[in-house]
Design a protein that fits this description.
Structural class: little secondary structure
Order of helices and strands: EEH
Number of strands: 2
Shape: elongated
Organism: Mus musculus domesticus (western European house mouse)
Protein name: Ubiquitin-specific peptidase 10
Radius of gyration: 15 Å
Length: 55
Amino acid sequence: SVVYQQSSKESATLQLFFTLQLDIQSDKIRTVQDALESLVARESVQGYTTKTKQE
């Protein structure tokens, strides 16, 4: 996973895994491609504060 913050270096966490859990419950998910795109879609995180107290 990667956290992007304006004016900061991206924070990447590498995780080894053997299975991939995909959300297939949504009405918007019709194909494996849809599920993969949903899995990696960007989303905004509110209230996240860095070590330097920047939001």
